[in-house]
Specification:
Elements: E1 2-3, E2 10-12, E3 19-21, H1 24-71
């Protein structure tokens, strides 16, 4: 591979002419950020589910209280 002038992590493949980025630290950081975003997304979805569960329980509680009040 031939180093691309002015770029320390870029190389040109001699056979295909493709430019290849060999910045492994940058790639690792990118993958870590993707995993972090995915984890954050999963946590938000779990919170949404938990909030819906709480809303459902509160509705049931309210209905139960209304039944007791109306039966008196």
């Amino acid at each position: 591979m031939i180093r691309v002038e002015g770029h320390k992590n870029l190389y040109r493949d001699e056979n295909s002419g493709a430019i290849i980025n060999c910045d492994f630290n940058g790639y690792d950081n990118y993958v870590r950020s993707l995993k972090s975003k995915e984890k954050e997304k999963d946590e938000i979805e779990q919170m949404k589910s938990d909030i819906q569960d709480i809303k459902d329980v509160l509705k049931e509680l309210k209905e139960g209280i209304n039944l007791v009040i109306n039966s008196k």
